[in-house]
Amino acid sequence: METGIDFAREVKQYILDEFLPGENPDDLTDDLPLISGGIIDSIATLKMVLHFEERYGIVLEAHEADKEHLDTIRDIAALLASKAG
After folding, report:
1. What is the pTM of this model?
2. Where is the Carrier domain (predicted)?
């Protein structure tokens, strides 16, 4: 496992590349509601989970793939850090 990963930066870049191409990166803050704000839907969430599981060799449990754990970049980064640690 890589160490010193800036998960928030990687999550933000992934969301910008995959779901918000051409958007201003400054508009995507670490606390912006992604799921509850309608920025990403359930299919996008699943795609994102699968990407990060493969990228970091981690497994997210079904109960972790929900709005409570994945609604903001900060939430996602914290979950990834806890799994990678």
Report:
1. 0.90
2. 6-84
User: How many domains does the chain contain in total?
Assistant: 1
Contact 83/76 with Cβ under 8 angstroms? no
Contact 21, 15 (CB under 8 A): no
Angle 76-78-44 (CA atoms, 0-180°, nearest 5)? 10
What is the domain range of residue 50?
Answer: 7-84
- Reported as a pLDDT band with limits 50, 70 and 90, residue 1 is very low
Residues making up the chain, counted from first to last: 85
Residue 1 inside a domain? The answer is no
Which amino acid, one-letter code, is at 50? L
